[in-house]
Every structure is written in C-alpha cells, then in structure tokens.
Known about the structure:
12 helices; TIM Barrel; ten-stranded parallel β-sheet; alpha/beta; binds iron/sulfur cluster; globular; disordered N terminus
Amino acid sequence: MKDIFACKIINGNAMKEINEISTKELRHNWTKEELLEIYERPLLELVYEAATVHHTWHKANEVQLSTLLSVKTGGCPEDCSYCGQAARYHTDIQVQSLLSTATVLAHARQAKDNGASRFCMAAAWREVRDNRDFDRIIEMVKGVNEIGLEVCCTLGMLTEQQAIRLKEAGLHAYNHNLDTSEEYYEEIISTRKFDQRIGTINHARQAGLTVCSGGIIGLGETHADRMAMLRTLANMEQHPESVPINALARVKGTPLENNPKVALWDMVRMIATARIVMPASMVRLSAGRLEMTETEQAWCFMAGANSIFTGERETLLVTPNPSIVDDRIMLENLGLKPMKRTN
Ligand code: SF4
C-alpha cells in the first residue's frame, strides 16, 4: 500500500502514526479517543485524509450499486424508535406479507438490468424462524444468485444453523446494523439487547457469510456514541465488508419523527471516519440520501462512500430513495461508474 501520509505532519506524532497505519494496514485496536479525534478534526483535513485512504484501497471512481427490496413489510413486533415498520407505531407504511418468489425474482432481474451488482432482501422480522417463510427466503436466495447478483439478506436475528442454510443457498452477505452505541442502545430499542446484535453478526461470520453492519445517526446520540458504534465495528476481528451509514429518515408516527434533520457535515464526518478506520470496507451512503442534493452526495463520495442503494422510487423501499434515473445522471455528472460484483 502507498505510504502517502508517512511524511505528512498533521497534528503531531500521534496523528502521523494513525495516518501511517490507516493507509497501510487494517487495525482492530482503535480507542474512543483516537476515533473522536479523527471525527472532530478540521473538516477539510478530515475529508482529504479519508479521500486519500479511499484512493489507496479502492478504485475511487467506482460505486457499488445495491438494490434493496422489502420482501416482507411492516407489522414488526420490535420497538426500534426510528422504524416505521414497527407494528406499535401508527405510520403510513402498508403491511405486506412475504412476497412471492416470482415477484422477488422479477425485481431482481430488473435491478440487474438497471446496473445493480448486489440485491438485498429485507424482511421486517424480529428473528428468523424455521418455518415455511424461511424456506421461501431460501428459494429466493437461490433464484437471485442464479440471476448473477450478489445476494444479501436482512431478516433480523438468526442462529448459526440458519446462517449456514442461507450460505448454502448462495447468500453472500448478511446485513445486521448495530444502529447505535452499546451505551445508547436501550434509549432506542427496548425489545432486544446490543449483545444480541453482536451474537447474530458472529453467527453470520461463523457460517462464512460476509457482514454488512453499520448504523444510524440523528437518533439523539452524542458524537461519543457515534464513535463508540464505529469502534465496535472497527475493532471486530474482521471488519464488516460493508458499513452502511444512515441518516435518520424521520418517519411520521415514530417516536423520532420530530428529531432535527441530520446536518450534512455530520454525515460527511461519519463517512470519512468510517473510511479511515475501516479502509478496506465498502462504506455505504444509505438512508437519508433523498434529502440530499447531488452536491451534498458528492461530498459523501469524496469522504470515502463507495456504495449506495438505488431503486425505483417508493416502490422497492419502505423509505423513499432517489430514482434510478436521478442516480444515473448523478453518477455521470460526478464521473463515477457502477462497480462489478465483488465475488
Ligand atoms: S427489527 Fe427491523 S423492521 Fe422491526 S422495528 Fe426494528 S428496524 Fe424495524
């Protein structure tokens, strides 16, 4: 790896060391202080370093396009306070039982035609149960894999045995976000524990799946909470291959509907810090993109984001996302091109 920062003096020797390491090798021993120092660094300096790390580890003109399909929507027994799919909140989201395999495969073919390389299927479940619905998910995973897309699922908590079944069906990645810091977790969700999130991530790893795990900002957490969450991810034995960074989508009817909009610079700082501490991972600019202009999204790409969800506006996702046409125009304007499959 290039040694771009080896000679660069920023804020003294400690910073020089961080820079040297972040451009050369993966670290798994970050401290909260180091992360906070990075996050709170002068913005342009932070973006410059993140962009340099990004260019060192990735083809910086390529963006992974993932399409997300909600295969089972709403009616979830959990109480995640940011989520419009929790049955206990009165939101406009229409409950939809598990889609047919044929419908899902039709969406997957369409996604492939639109240039997506990854197809993610999301079910609003607390956990996977060994029942007919899970058998159908297994069928969908096989079908999407045969279409030639990298398949990802997010189905709630799962056991190692269930993860193994998914892996054998051709699943590439399992998404399970940490959401927020361990310390702030019970302010946001009371129906499960942070440790259970970690348990599911471990089950996915043990089954040989790649891990997609990130979080949300704008939940009322502090900067220290944000960094604690990133630290949990960055100090895992293996960094998650994908790290989605979400800005809270303020869904009407949820307890967080009146939270302030996440400031652009907070998203940029979060993405840049994730890029620096997990240099090899795909950092995904996820929920909240609809509320961003093209210029604002360009800042996020500059800060090291190299993956987005793209899909048909309001049909594939439970929170709106920019349309595929808008995304194509944006990528062309920014000189970015869709990444091929990574496996
Ligand atoms: S578990 Fe998932 S679907 Fe259910 S309320 Fe939480 S975020 Fe929403």
